[in-house]
Amino acid sequence: MAVDTGSRRPGGARSSGRRKVAVVGVALSDCGRVDDATAYALHAQAARRALADSGLDRAVIDGIASAGLGTLAPVEVAEYLGLRPRWVDSTSVGGATWEVMAAHAADAIAAGHANAVLLVYGSTARADLKARRRTANLSFGARGPLQFEVPYGHTLVAKYAMAARRHMHEYGTTLEQLAQVAVQARANAAANPEAMYRDPITVDDVLTGPMIADPFTKLHCCIRSDGGCAVLLAAEDYVPDCASVPVWVLGSGEHVSHTAMSEWEDFTVSPAAVSGRLAFERAGVGPADVDIAEIYDAFTYMTLVTLEDLGFCAKGEGGAFVEKGRLLRDGELPTNTDGGGLSAQHPGMRGLFLLVEAVRQLRGTAGQGRQVRRAGGRLPEVAVVSGTGGWFCSSGTVVLGR
């Protein structure tokens, strides 16, 4: 049964004239190794599956949000899908894009500017690399603030590595603790048939792997895959016609921090410290109410510091928090229950995958062997989804409830 979110935001009280908003459809496209499809085709596949999951007719979709593909995203994606939306969003803030878009879409639906908004993404990052259509290095260009860092080879992974080293220096966080994030993500992936890597790994496997950017070895870093996904949000009016159990948007927050590393005041604090606080306040819940967490994990340090900044443990205590098995599916705080970007899929801006997994878990449709059950065998009721973009440049956090 859906919880009463009448007094919460962004759904809001009916007396305010704002409608409640639910996620009514979610789906992944084919993921992992997909050599025979274009990124547009993955968009379409995910969109069709999400619409089928919702049980609604495509005619109800009057909004679309997309980024990362085409010259005029999301115009090109909408055209490819045969949609003519009256509400669009092309916000692009890296991996946090989709949580920020979900917040924008929920606000638009609540205010009556749209009725049903499709968030859709697809990428053939792995296939393009294998076919030599692109290189392995991700370049954000060398103009603007980046011109002061690019000449020194300060890559994306190096920026995260430097931040991790600062946390280790400041709080005594160890490599073994960071490695535990990867080990537990892989354990969660083991029961997920859609995960790209499912074989168990150990802390020693992580520590002895090839060095990528000190202190990160290969298994500290996300995998590279192909894949896409889609999420359909709709006004409460459409929920009775849906084939799926609604998952309600209870609250959201967003925040941007910096571009140049010299402008980042504290390498041990991510923008989730702000976006998370706003999301919890607007949802009317707190970290203690959360049953599952889906957190952007391009690198192990991202998971650890985001858990701190969302309030699941105090600043500097993330290492001790993660090493106790708390992130496992049957742990105290099941986190990245599909295996995350470290083991399941990571085709690029992975934030939308976090929303899909959270919704599946809250509905109770994650699948045999990997569905989270809380005390007494109950299904999870509240999930927090937090995306990170750039090198901790942006954050979007969404709180969902069943």
From TrEMBL:
Matches recorded under Gene3D superfamilies: 3.40.47.10
Segment forming the signal sequence: none
Residue ranges occupied by any Thiolase C-terminal domain in the UniProt entry: 253-402
TM segment ranges: none
Superkingdom: Bacteria
CDD domains: SCP-x_thiolase
Database matches in InterPro entries: Thiolase (IPR002155), Thiolase-like (IPR016039), Thiolase_C_2 (IPR055140)
Protein name per UniProt: Acetyl-CoA acetyltransferase
Organism: Streptomyces flavofungini
